[in-house]
Design a protein that fits this description.
The complex is a heterodimer of chains A (361) and B (298).
Chain A (H helix, E strand, L loop, with lengths): L8 H17 L7 H7 L1 H11 L4 H10 L4 H12 L17 E6 L38 H6 L9 H7 L29 H9 L3 H12 L8 E15 L6 E17 L11 E9 L3 H15 L11 H7 L2 H9 L6 H24 L1
Antiparallel strand pairs in A: 1-2, 2-3, 3-4
Helix pairs in contact in A: 2-4, 3-4, 3-5, 4-5, 8-10, 9-10
Chain B lengths: L3 H6 L15 H16 L5 E2 L13 H10 L5 E6 L6 H14 L2 E2 L8 E5 L12 E5 L13 H9 L4 H14 L10 E3 L3 E3 L18 E6 L4 E5 L5 E3 L27 E5 L5 E5 L2 H8 L11
Parallel strand pairs in B: 2-3, 2-4, 4-5, 5-8
Antiparallel strand pairs in B: 1-9, 6-7, 6-10, 8-9, 11-12
Chain lengths: 361, 298
């Protein structure tokens, strides 16, 4: 059985491939992958998070190859990661071990360990910096440089203060599900375990979470909670040493973590503390996503539901993944003439029936 | 039994840097087990850990995972989209399968061992040993009446299809007809209501008591389901409103003259329309004067 040539299609897609290849390899100054990694860190972080791979070079390569389309870049990473073998599993790390570069609380004026503003655009004026058109000059950092490096000290968690004051339930002794669910290997089942839920949200598309969280805050089932603590920094990756069995640190992952406190409507019916926590943790520097995630997590945890979609885990978890949503929405570009023909035949049949019914009436 | 050395040879030419047939062996094993479960429970949707593929969700990743889990180096692969082997997506899938496995490509329905398809069942009758892999966008036939996946699962478990029947009844009351065109719901083996994927009504009767194996893969929705050979598949219908397929009375394929085929209409520049067979391999065979068996139902 030999290969039979096909009409048109193969040539057309090969030509299309060449056109997009040349878009990133031809004309003007070629963008280096290292430039993306160094200067477009936020998009690289977002792509690594949504793609589910922590590798700065691969993330930057995906951004370059996708011409800066974050969803397409995350898709490239996902399709790559799925072929990688599992060489091992890390031990659980706690947010308490984070090497902090930034930490703020909006719930308290002062927090134990102190607020660390760090690297943020929050209080900058959004004015175009035209000096960047000509490259721009770095500013002297002095002591700031030292403060911007990850801090080896462990900072207390603000949430622990609330727990100590019995405003929130104490931390569970151990995680509810000991062996975490793996959303990359198992299909979601509902009700989803908490680990499945958090994994789904952590890999979700930033814009999708933002939109859901915003809708929730505006009155569609979310809360205007309080950020007990928002942190950025490096989290250790530890494995159990194959020979000694001791935990060894094999690297660091840059993350953003958000603890959102919601509730607080004390009631006579319950004597237990009724603030609850929504949690968000995402890859890299992506506060927008971490805050959105914590709002959605808090809504999903609600025991008394208002019926809004942000409290519905099927709705949230099935629709927040960019790779799945973009694939299905954009598949509309595929030819559908067979199904459309079936629809046309049905429509004309029903029209005939309606016409006949009118004539008989 | 084949020997180990012939099995090793059967691996064909793998694509550098990737596993044979792209998927890792554990993924393939999981998919094959899901298929076996599907064969044992015809029409039941088996959840599986659908992997991310190098083509987009919604573009045939479910079908592709089934194909890649089954294909060996000696297989002969055919891929059609809307019945057409030359459609760009079909070409793209076929070259990915060939590139990662070294399997032989074909356009010939009769010569293929595995056929991956989107929204059509070939006109030419498929025989024992052949596998038709259908790409599925929405595997849940109850989605129209129940949006919650968890609730729909328990409706299937309890064989509670009352809301489905009610929806069909309401359709008839409103429109005088069941309005579903492509993807008409079917009852498999008298037990499970199943989404046949958006194949036209024309193809629905082919599912009933066929000789080939039908596999359905929904990658984004992470479900696999199966209609094994010689399994009863009936469209949902009322005694006084029987199921009916499309009719193309008096029309023939403008390219091949074929009449016993699903035809699609394309507008022409002079404001008229042209009808052609959507199954291009069938049209080619009719044009070449070959005898083609299209009698699926015996």
């Amino acid at each position: 059985m030999g290969y039979s040539s096909v009409r048109g299609g193969l040539d057309a897609i090969e030509h299309a491939e060449r056109l997009i290849h040349n878009q990133v390899t031809d004309g003007g100054d070629i963008l280096e992958v290292s430039q993306v990694a160094d200067h477009l860190q936020l998009i690289t972080d977002q792509v690594m998070g949504e793609g589910g791979v922590y590798d700065v070079e691969l993330g930057a390569l995906a951004v370059k190859q996708a011409e800066g389309d974050p969803i397409e870049a995350a898709f490239l990473l996902r399709a790559y990661r799925t072929t990688l073998p599992r060489v091992g599993y890390s031990l659980a790390s706690s947010g308490r071990e984070l090497r902090i570069t930034r930490r703020i609380s909006s719930a308290f004026r002062d927090i134990p360990g102190g607020q660390v503003l760090g690297r943020t655009r929050d209080y900058t004026q959004r004015l175009m910096d035209f000096s960047l058109l000509d490259g721009g000059e770095p500013m002297p950092l002095g002591l700031i440089a030292q403060a911007d490096a990850p801090d080896d000290d462990e900072f207390p968690l603000v949430i622990d203060v609330l727990r100590a004051q019995e405003l929130m339930p104490a931390a569970p002794d151990r995680p509810a599900d000991i062996e975490p669910f793996d959303v990359t290997r198992e299909p979601l089942r509902f009700p989803a375990t908490r680990s499945a839920r958090l994994q789904g949200l952590a890999r979700a598309e930033t814009g999708a979470l933002l939109s859901l969280a915003y809708a929730g805050m505006r009155g569609y089932g979310g809360d205007h909670g309080y950020i007990a603590e928002l942190r950025q920094g490096d989290l250790p990756v530890k494995i159990s040493h194959p020979v000694t069995g001791r935990a060894v640190n094999i690297g660091w992952v840059s993350v953003t973590e958000c603890y959102q406190i919601v509730g607080g409507q004390a009631s006579k019916a319950k004597d237990r503390p009724d603030y609850t926590m929504g949690y968000g943790m995402v890859i890299g520097r992506n506060e927008r996503k971490a805050i959105s995630m914590s709002i959605i997590d808090a809504s999903l945890k609600k025991e008394v539901k208002s019926g809004n979609v942000i409290e519905d885990e099927e709705y949230v978890l099935y629709h927040c993944d960019a790779i799945e949503s973009m694939g299905f929405v954009e598949h509309l570009k595929l030819p559908h003439y067979v199904d459309f023909q079936a629809s046309l035949v049905r429509t004309s049949k029903v029209r005939e029936l309606v016409k006949a019914a009118r004539t008989n009436a | 039994m084949p020997s180990v050395s012939t099995l090793l040879e059967d691996r064909g030419a793998a694509f550098a840097g990737y596993s044979f047939a792209f998927l890792d062996d554990m993924a393939k094993r999981e998919i094959r087990r899901a298929i076996l479960k599907g064969v044992a429970i015809p029409g039941h949707q088996v959840p599986f850990g659908s992997r991310e593929m190098p083509i987009a969700r919604g573009w045939g990743t479910g079908g592709l995972q089934l194909t890649l889990a089954l294909v060996g180096g000696s297989d002969v692969i055919k891929v059609i989209d809307q019945g057409d082997d030359a459609s760009v997506n079909a070409v793209n899938l076929r070259r990915l399968i060939a590139k990662t496995t070294g399997a032989t490509e074909t356009l010939d329905t009769a010569a293929a061992t595995l056929i991956q398809t989107r929204h059509r069942i070939p006109e030419e009758v498929m025989r024992e040993g052949q596998v038709l892999i259908l790409q599925v966008p929405i595997p849940e036939p109850l989605r129209l009446v129940e949006r919650s996946v968890a609730a729909a699962r328990s409706m299937h478990a309890e064989m509670d299809y009352s809301r489905m029947w009610l929806a069909l009844y309401e359709d008839i009351v409103r429109r005088g007809e069941v309005s579903a065109g492509a993807g008409y719901p079917v009852m498999v083996n008298g037990r499970f209501v199943m989404a046949p994927s958006p194949i036209p009504r024309w193809d629905i009767p082919k599912l009933d008591n066929a000789r080939c194996l039908f596999l359905f893969g929904a990658g984004r929705e992470k479900r696999i389901y199966v209609v094994p050979p010689f399994t009863k598949v009936e469209p949902l219908e009322f005694d006084d409103y029987p199921f009916d397929t499309e009719h193309f009375d008096g029309k023939a394929c403008a390219l091949s003259g074929a009449t016993n085929a699903y035809l699609v209409e394309s507008p022409t520049e002079d404001g008229g329309s042209r009808w052609t067979a959507s199954d291009t391999n069938y049209a080619d065979k009719v044009l070449a004067g070959q005898e083609v068996d299209t009698k699926w139902k015996r």
